[in-house]
Specification:
Blueprint lengths: L1 H15 L5 E4 L15 H12 L5 E5 L13 H8 L4 E4 L21
Parallel strand pairs: 1-2, 2-3
Helix pairs in contact: 1-2, 2-3
């Protein structure tokens, strides 16, 4: 059940959450040989819905592409952004050596 996968995060936010709390996570992150599973995007989008209902300072999505992990699915960032309309910070996934003059490569932030 998706609710069970989200419980720790949401209960913690219920205890300490508020407009001064930010949340950082790495959807599709792979640690200790974790394998992907079929409905993997569903819990993250459900979490975006739950975040939308709370007064958070920001949500920080970290794509682990820069540390050798696989890229997030192409449509995930846009789907997350469509669901969560609050302040969103996106990190990772930029090509090596990319400077600040490079265009934003995150589709959830209006990039290419």
């Amino acid at each position: 059940m998706i609710e069970n996968r989200l419980r720790f995060m949401l209960e913690t936010l219920g205890e300490i959450g508020g407009a001064c709390v930010g949340v950082r996570f790495s959807p599709f992150g792979r640690l200790f040989d974790m394998e992907p599973y079929a409905d993997e995007a569903q819990p993250w989008v459900a979490l975006a819905t739950a975040f939308e209902a709370r007064p958070l300072a920001y949500v920080h999505l970290s794509d682990q592409l820069t540390i050798g992990a696989e890229k997030m699915p192409e449509d995930f960032a846009a789907s997350f952004r469509k669901t969560y309309r609050g302040t969103l910070i996106a990190a990772g996934g930029r090509p090596s050596g990319a400077g600040s003059s490079r265009p934003n490569l995150c589709p959830c932030c209006g990039g290419e």
